[in-house]
Structures are given as structure tokens and as C-alpha cells.
Amino acid sequence: MTTHIEILVFNGVDELDALAPYRVLHGAIRFGAEFVVKLVTLEPVETVTASAGLVFTPDGVLGEPDILVVPGGGWATRDPIGAWGEAQRGVIPAAIGSQAARGATIATVCTGGMLAAYADLVTGRNVVTHHAALGDLRARGANVIQARVVDDGDLISAGGVTSGLDLALYLVERFASAEIAAKVGGMLEYERRGTVWRR
């Protein structure tokens, strides 16, 4: 059965938060994972400008994925363009909440975890985010776990920035196979790091 995965991007998103999981998940397809992976936005746009200035073209708009990956960016600096600004506007958190309500697994990278928090998904849940936002995450009612990746069932989260690689490899392991995850790691010459905490 095909697993549809969408990575939700927005202006000010951290490049590595979004594109590292995209690369890993696409790599898994090469080794037999039955994934469809897309970069999506809430509204139709021609391009997205990421936090360091990279401009890229998304694949389309948010549909009804099995897994929604939510990256972060710009939280610690309280940048109005990025995850902080999107949390204040509330439109992306509302969309994340709707996806969770219809049964999608939500997977967050870095301060994408704060967008899930503003979607009211973390109260009493086991989660992690970038170290600079852990206090903010606790303030939203989360049970913060000191781990690289935290699997709390239909909410999977990862720490800061490069942990998106570990999150994506864990998604490959959980939704395809450990063998495929190992092959993708080998192809990328990346050794998985840190602890994966599972509920």
C-alpha cells in the first residue's frame, strides 16, 4: 500500500528542516519504499523562499497525506517570516490540526514542533523540538523528552535542524522497513545519531 507523505513548506522555512527529509524519503523510493513524497504549501504559490534565501518550487498544495511532515525555522529569532510568524497567524497550525483530526500522522522537525503545539496537539504528549524552544514547548503542555526522535504514535517529533535526517530515516524504518532505512543511510553516507524514544 502506498504511503503519501507531504512536507509542508512556507516562506522562512529552514532549508535543511524541509529538504533533508525530502531527500531521505525520496531515496527510500529508490530502494523499494512505496512512498509518494511532495513539498506542499497551503495556498498555490510559484515559489517559496527559505530562511537562508534558497528559492524553490513546491509540488502543489496540501492534500490528504498519510504523513504530514512539518519543518520549522525562525523561531528563536521571533522572525515574522517563518515558524514563529506562522504560529502567530494561526493558519498553518489550524491546517495541521485538521490533518491530525482526520487521522494523519504528524511528524515535526525542529521548531515545526511548535507549529504542532499551536495546533493544540502536544498537551500531555511526549515530544521534542529544537533546544531553543523547549521552554516554549513545555509551556504548551508538552512532556518534553530528551531524545533525537520521539515517537508518540501519531505524533512523531525530532530535535533541531539536522535531526530531520534521523526523523526521516525513522519514518522509512517505521513505514517501510529497517533494511530500506539502512540502505538510504548508506547511500547518503549518514550514520543515524542519538536516541529514538518510542511510546
CATH homologous superfamily identity? Class I glutamine amidotransferase (GATase) domain
The main β sheet shows up as: 8 strands, mixed
pLDDT under 50 segments (min length 5)? none
Class based on secondary structure composition and strand pairing: alpha/beta
How much is the average pLDDT? 97
| CATH level-3 fold name | Rossmann fold
Sum up the overall morphology in one term: globular
Please state the second-level CATH architecture: 3-Layer(aba) Sandwich
* Gap from first CA to last CA: 25 Å
CATH class category label: Alpha Beta
Structure summary:
36% of the residues lie in helices and 21% in strands. With 199 residues, the chain is of the alpha/beta class. Strands 5-2-1-6-7-11-10-12 form an 8-stranded mixed β-sheet, with helices on both faces.
Please provide a written account of the structure.
With 199 residues, the protein is of the alpha/beta class. The chain has one domain (3-198): Rossmann fold (3-Layer(aba) Sandwich). 36% of the residues lie in helices and 21% in strands. The chain is built from seven helices and twelve strands. It has helices at residues 15-30, 83-89, 91-101, 112-118, 134-139, 163-175, 178-188, and strands at 3-8, 35-41, 48-49, 55-56, 60-61, 67-70, 105-108, 126-127, 143-144, 149-151, 155-158, 196-198. Helix 1 (15-30) runs parallel beside helix 6 and helix 2 (83-89) runs parallel beside helix 4. The radius of gyration is 15 Å and the shape is globular.
